[in-house]
Design goal:
binds zinc ion, two-stranded antiparallel ribbon, Rossmann fold, alpha/beta, 16 helices, Dehydroquinate synthase-like, alpha domain, binds 5,6-dihydroxy-NADP, six-stranded parallel sheet
Length: about 425
């Protein structure tokens, strides 16, 4: 094994982490009184729910492609795919044939890599315009789908550079419709309003949220995920868990239904994640993961409260700097984030421990045990929980400082809601993970 095993037993590390957490916890206890007062004053917030994607779920779902293209107004389509798994599995030629049989011209545009690149999306937009595509289909996972979304935005706005939308320098007012044939349960992009792209020239990995990102339809056949390597399945499990956790940790009270949906989803992913990691052809487990992947990120698990998403922001900087897989970046950061912020609302962490892991006890002990249990689960899946677990190894402190600076957008923003994190907070969290 490589440096992955430098951090091989979870308990001593977590014990050290717990000591650090107790320091933070004590320092924050006083502040907590104020925070608690604010929290008690809050109830479910007003929200708009818009999840328009038509989902076709189950064996053979991809065979509906031509019908769905027609139904949603497409007549010439571009199929955007990744590094070749869909060619190897025969899915891409099958889709091309299905379209051709129904008289729908298509062009395939491949080469999308995990942590998809802006340059390729720009190329795709030019090709889509040249072909005259009126619908873009992402065939694959988050990377292919997000590229399809970026291509759709670029093709519909030839006067703009795609990155201007990601940098909020230009409002997105129109796009082409996007459809999806999903092959991995993870990012939830098949129903989400997000798209995440990396600008390789600047090392920035950035997402945008817009209703133009919501796919018109998603064809979801769990059997298409049977060819996934274990590492991609476990990266996906972490991402699905994290889309709910990044919404669950909130200072807003009320929201009983949202809380209980989130807790149920987490229990289902944890249980079926174990099965899927040991048998990728377990249809039951793979179908549960696939459906959880969509529900976790279509908005349902965060209704009625602001979203936090700190761990995603912390992880995006790691992926932007080191090209780490998205799920791995999240498992690397979550435990350190949780230990750092736990003192802001230990009751929330204790509730999580109880409802998701069945851990009860006094608030502080349960809260920390819930964090420990989550980190242990990531390790059980062989996912990294600190820098030295992954190929990057322990980094000089200057790297943690640079990550914090970038994550704070050079001190132009605070990150998260559960605790609003400034550059110093972010630095402390990266330092906790840099072991
Ligand atoms: O590229 P190919 O050859 O297809 O291989 C892929 C890729 O190497 C492989 N794979 C996918 N389906 C397969 C398969 N291999 C064998 N059999 C199959 N059935 O898996 C690898 C990872 O694919 P990728 O699309 O990168 O995975 P994922 O769905 O995890 O997407 C990750 C990307 O989505 C972004 C992430 O930041 C990352 O860039 N996210 C997008 C979100 C959104 N749009 O809402 C939200 C997420 O939080 C996330 O940020
Ligand atoms: Zn994610």
């Amino acid at each position: 094994m490589t440096n992955r095993r430098r951090c091989d037993t979870i308990s001593p590390k977590i014990t050290r982490g717990r000591k650090a957490a107790h320091v933070e916890y004590g320092a924050l206890r006083q502040k907590q009184k104020t925070v608690k007062h604010e929290r008690e004053a809050k109830i479910m917030q007003s929200f708009t729910m818009y999840a328009p994607t038509e989902i076709v779920f189950g064996g053979g779902a991809e065979e509906q492609l031509a019908a769905m293209v027609r139904k949603h107004g497409g007549s010439r389509v571009m199929l955007v795919y990744g590094g070749g798994s869909v060619v190897k599995s025969g899915l891409l030629p099958k889709l091309e044939e299905l379209l051709s049989k129904e008289g729908i011209p298509s062009v395939a545009f491949g080469g999308v890599q995990p942590n998809p690149l802006l340059a390729l999306a720009r190329e795709g937009a030019v090709s889509a315009r040249e072909f005259g595509a009126d619908m873009i289909i992402g065939v694959g996972g988050g990377s292919a789908i997000d590229t399809a979304k970026a291509v759709a935005h670029g093709a519909a706005n030839p006067e703009a550079d795609i990155w201007q939308f990601w940098k909020a320098e230009r409002p997105l007012t129109k796009s082409l419709p996007v459809g999806v044939v999903l092959t991995i349960s993870a990012a939830g992009s098949e129903t989400s309003s997000s798209a995440v792209i990396t600008n390789q020239e600047t090392g920035e990995k950035r997402g945008i949220n817009t209703e133009f990102n919501r796919p018109r339809f998603a064809l979801m056949n769990p059997e298409l995920t049977f060819t996934l390597p274990k590492y991609q399945i476990t990266c996906g499990i972490v991402d699905i868990i994290m889309h709910t956790l990044d919404r669950y940790f909130t200072q807003t009270g009320g929201n009983e239904l949202t809380d209980e949906i989130a807790e149920a989803l987490l229990r289902v992913v944890i249980r079926n994640g174990r099965k899927a990691a040991s048998d990728p052809k377990d249809y039951g487990a793979m179908s549960e993961l696939m459906w959880c992947g969509s529900v976790s990120h279509n908005g349902t698990t965060g209704l009625g409260r602001p979203m936090d998403f700190s761990v995603h922001q912390l992880g995006h900087e790691l992926s932007g700097m080191f090209d780490i897989a998205h799920g791995a970046s999240l498992s690397t950061m979550w435990g350190s984030w949780a230990l750092y912020v736990c003192g802001e609302n230990p009751e929330r962490f204790a509730r999580y421990a109880d409802k998701v892991w069945g851990i009860t006890g006094d608030t502080e002990t349960a809260a920390l045990a819930g964090i420990e249990k989550t980190v242990e689960y990531f390790r059980e899946l062989d996912m990294p929980v600190c820098f030295s677990d992954s190929r990057i190894g322990v980094q000089p402190e200057a790297v943690a400082a640079e990550l914090a600076l970038r994550c704070s957008f050079h001190e132009k923003r605070l990150v998260g809601q559960f605790k609003k994190l400034d550059r110093n907070d972010l630095f402390s969290i990266y330092k906790l993970a840099n072991r």
